[in-house]
Amino acid sequence: MIQETESPPRRSPRQSGGGRPFSVAALRALRHELFAFSTRAPRLLPRVKNRVLRKLPMVLAVFFATDLAVPNALAVSDRLDLVWAGAAALACAQSLPVVLAPVWPVAAWWLSLTAVLPYGIGLAAMGSAAPAGVPWPWTETGLIAHLTVTLLVAWRARPRVYLTQWALTVLTGGLLTVLASPVADANDLLLLALLSAFGLAVLAVIRGRTEAEDRLREQEVLTEFERTRRALLEERTRIARELHDVVAHHMSVIAVQAEAAPYRVADPPEELSESFASIRGNALAALTEMRHILGMLRSDDQPAEGRFTPQPTLENVEELVDNVRAAGLHVESTVEGTARPLPQRVELSAFRIIQEALSNALRHAPGCRVDFQLSYERTGIRIRVANSPATGARPQAGRGHGVLGMRERASTLGGTLRAGPREDGWYEVTAWLPTNDGEGI
């Protein structure tokens, strides 16, 4: 026994140093995300294929920014006594981040925060000459522009990023208020803080719900895939068990006949006896291998009493149809061609397909009419089960895998199966199974 004394177990970042390495890593990641100016955001409408519709968010952003820039330029020019060119430049600097935010959200937010400084500092520098009662440190349209950029960035960034940006916005406004507040002002910092906090809270709820729905849809897709895959494996396992019962019977007969054949002839040649012994040995070896494989496929909870139940054949079809009639369905049964003995695996698969098709009609179309047709052809058999829409009780809900199992049985024999609704509203299952009579199994 090896003693684990070579090296002490490594401590996780949360356990070592009171969580300091984790905090340092988180601060580094936050700093990187806050100053990732060149990072491009994904498109707002990634699933839209039309090029015009993909450009729609940017077109709306340009119109909205223009609508904000014009009144903002008039307000700045009037309150700061600036020439029209300077006021227009400052107004464009405060509105341009609205256009940049869908593409470069981080750079747009820093530009929006920086663009507020000239107006606030300029209004404070005027002192008593500043107009009374005007908003400060943002203009009305500047506040709307910065709030819009904040929400657009929050829709793309992580919570720690947009919460830090909100805190930096409040801190910048607070420093301007303390260090450069004009004599007469109407401070809109509290209004911006409350509106942005409320908008971020609503956006966080919507974004969280959207992400949860996306994860739920992904999980549903994975669950459905696993359910289908499991049903396919279970159906193949059941087919393998049934084929074992069919083939094992014939292999046992071959082994017994090969063992008894030399005793049917007086003084058989040695070569003949060795040949029959070889046949018997190969048959027994095949049976042993089949039982070994079946042992791996067979589940532990399989009832032992059902392992040696005789498998149904096409001779039991009438009994199956009578049971369905007794359950309340009107079934018209037709057999075409001359009935003949078929390979046991074909009869078993045909019976299971008929059984599943009738069961589906009983479950999903209560009170319907069923047309069942079994045709014996020269190289195979054809099965057709069609049912009308439900006329009785409410159909049973569910996503069963019966069609998947029927198709798997048909493909195992080299046949085909089609299932689906017809133009007249009926649901039809048709299958063709080759008999391969010459194989002798």
Order of helices and strands: HHHHHEHHEHHHEHEEHEE
Q: Structural class, judged by helices and strands?
A: alpha/beta
Q: Give the count of helical stretches.
A: 12
Radius of gyration: 40 Å
User: Approximately how much beta-strand content do the residues carry?
Assistant: 5-15%
Cα end-to-end separation: 56 Å
Order of strands in the sheet with most strands: 3-4-5-7-6
The shape is: elongated
Q: Specify the helix fraction band.
A: 55-70%
Weakly predicted, low-confidence segments: 1-22, 300-308
How many beta-strand elements?
7
Largest sheet: 5 strands, mixed
Structural features, described:
The chain is α/β, with parallel strands linked by helices and 441 residues long. It has 12 helices and 7 strands. A 5-stranded mixed beta sheet has the order 3-4-5-7-6, covered by helices on one side. A two-stranded parallel sheet has the order 1-2. Helix 4 (84-100) packs parallel to helix 6, helix 5 runs antiparallel to helix 6 (140-156) and helix 10 runs parallel beside helix 11. Mean pLDDT is 79; it is low at 1-22 and 300-308.
